[in-house]
């Protein structure tokens, strides 16, 4: 039989329900306020909020950084820990309010600690061959998010917040985490500024919800003040080798250096001087790191509003591989900022070292800004010099000074044209090819048709097998055809040079019976079994397992004949 409640009963229930909810909110609010008063009031005093604030913010909407610790709450296995662990954090600013105190703001936000381990990637790899590239499932990852609120003092750059989160222990037990976040350096910044801090548990050491303090490091982005302007940077790069501006590509007005280097990680191969036989004078880190870096990656932190200046990390891993996820090591990292020089078509960079480096990121410091770097886009490619980005790194110190190292050249690993117009290819081996391919021209059979030299069909997939029977997959990617440079983008080739703009002209070049000059990048990668074995020892193999051949020659569209040297 249905039960019918009168309006007075419903009203009475709602009153009790509202009172109960209000009671719970009061308890939660009181606990939060009590926690803040107990752990933060001596750092940034509480002050009643007055109105929302949108101009003075401690962070941009999303601020990234690095942390150390937290293995327990992130449910990571210490036996899997290595230098390849990637521990990144992100702080999302949700609300900022003005308070009764002019320099104090109330802040509400969330702190997310991400954890990714390279061993997971190696053990959970599933390679798939598909159209000249390999794809894999993403590495396993875990994350813990803290909801925090507290106060920021703009004049001192200190921020203190308290909040809670939930996680699971390695045994599967649900954890209720309460913590206090303390940060310093949250204010206007320069190249040597850092945001440092610690996330500490509010539980006692014998409580299952307790975790060891987590140290943090972030690079402030709000109101960043670049060290040099364009004119001063020209002086800073005076130690650069004499490279004429005409030998480097210029950025057109609609493209900024920030947009060109917008990729999360840009990787480069380092080349040391032939007389470099001492780590003390050749290694940018001297004898401190115990290895001579072979790779450098640029990881963009921030771009200026006009896109002509940017900040980034220059990282030198002890590995032959740099992936999208990689560890942060201040012992092998420089902090740099650069501005594009329109006169000499180059990026001029000033970089600094981490001068205080120990187990705690919260104690890191930046100084010794004696490193210089340039970056340019070579205007001419050839079979022996095919790189989309090149440059040099050097020290402006004297030979006998601590921190001095000899000039290092670097070149990009992946030869993407990156949308910089004007690139040309110089053929140097075509005469040798013509001598090597002096064979009787085959007679074209009726009904036979071969791809036009500028067709996307000139991109090939291939498989090769060596004398031992080992199989490798490969791809042939045209770099230039005739006087045109091409880039594979969105499933079609796009010309980057305007010397022959009309497609009808391109077709005419292939229909007049004359063979076309052509160049290729041929990439060969061991098949699944060999590749998987390489990944398990990726620090000594990795990228070097892939073989790249640069070739150039002639293609006859009438007979389908392609002959090259590489």
Automatic annotation (TrEMBL):
It holds the Pfam family DUF2921_N. Residues 37-215, 247-409, 441-566 form the DUF2921 domain. Coiled coil: none annotated. Residues 1-32 form the signal peptide. Keywords: Signal. PANTHER family: FAMILY PROTEIN, PUTATIVE (DUF2921)-RELATED (PTHR33389), OS01G0677900 PROTEIN (PTHR33389:SF18). This is DUF2921 domain-containing protein. It comes from Dipteronia dyeriana.
């Amino acid at each position: 039989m249905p039960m019918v409640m009168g309006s007075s009963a419903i009203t009475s229930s709602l009153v009790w329900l509202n009172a109960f909810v209000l009671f719970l909110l009061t308890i939660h609010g009181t606990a939060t306020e009590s926690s803040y008063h107990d752990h933060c009031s001596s750092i940034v005093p509480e002050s009643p909020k007055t109105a929302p604030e949108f101009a003075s913010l401690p962070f941009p909407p999303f601020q990234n950084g690095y942390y150390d610790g937290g293995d327990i709450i992130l449910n990571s296995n210490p036996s899997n820990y290595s230098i390849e662990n990637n521990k990144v954090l992100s702080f999302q600013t949700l609300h900022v309010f003005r308070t009764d105190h002019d320099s104090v703001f109330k802040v509400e936000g969330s702190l997310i600690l991400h954890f990714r381990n390279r061993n997971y990637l190696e053990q959970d790899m599933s390679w798939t061959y598909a159209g000249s590239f390999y794809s894999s499932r993403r590495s396993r990852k875990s994350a813990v998010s803290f909801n925090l609120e507290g106060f920021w003092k703009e004049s001192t750059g200190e921020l203190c917040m308290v909040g809670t989160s939930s996680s699971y222990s390695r045994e599967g037990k649900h954890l209720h985490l309460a913590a206090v976040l303390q940060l310093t350096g949250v204010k206007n910044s320069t190249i040597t500024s850092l945001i440092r801090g610690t996330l500490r548990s509010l539980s006692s050491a014998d409580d299952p919800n307790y975790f060891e303090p987590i140290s943090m490091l972030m690079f402030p982005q709000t109101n960043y003040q670049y060290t040099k302007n364009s004119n001063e940077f020209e002086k800073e790069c005076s130690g650069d080798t004499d490279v004429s501006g005409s030998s480097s590509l210029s950025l057109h007005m609609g493209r900024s250096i920030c947009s060109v280097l917008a990729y999360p990680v840009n990787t480069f191969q380092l080349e040391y001087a032939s007389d470099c036989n001492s780590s003390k004078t050749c290694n940018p880190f001297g004898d401190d790191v115990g290895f001579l870096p072979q790779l450098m990656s640029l990881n963009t932190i921030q771009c200026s509003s006009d896109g002509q200046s940017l900040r980034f990390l220059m990282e030198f891993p002890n590995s032959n591989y740099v992936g999208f996820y990689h560890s942060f090591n201040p012992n092998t990292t420089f902090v740099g900022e650069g501005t594009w020089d329109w006169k000499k078509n180059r990026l001029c960079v000033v970089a600094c070292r981490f001068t205080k480096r120990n187990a705690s990121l919260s104690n890191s410091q930046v100084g010794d800004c004696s490193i210089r770097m340039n970056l340019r886009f070579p205007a001419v490619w050839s079979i022996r010099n095919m790189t989309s980005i090149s440059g040099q790194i050097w020290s402006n110190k004297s030979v006998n000074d601590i921190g001095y190292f000899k000039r290092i050249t670097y070149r990009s690993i992946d030869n993407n044209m990156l949308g910089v117009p004007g690139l040309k290819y110089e053929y140097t081996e075509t005469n040798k090819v013509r001598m090597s391919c002096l064979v009787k021209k085959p007679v074209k059979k009726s009904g036979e048709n071969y791809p036009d030299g500028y067709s996307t069909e000139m991109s090939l997939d291939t498989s090769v097998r060596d004398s031992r029977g080992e199989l490798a997959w490969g791809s042939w990617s045209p770099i230039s055809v005739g006087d045109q440079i091409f880039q594979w983008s969105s499933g079609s080739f796009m010309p980057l040079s305007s010397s022959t703009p009309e497609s009808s002209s391109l077709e005419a070049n292939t229909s007049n019976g004359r063979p076309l000059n052509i160049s290729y990048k041929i990439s060969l990668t061991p098949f699944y079994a060999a590749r998987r074995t390489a990944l398990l020892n990726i620090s000594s193999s990795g990228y070097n397992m892939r073989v790249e051949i640069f070739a150039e020659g002639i293609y006859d569209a009438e007979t389908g004949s392609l002959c090259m040297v590489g």
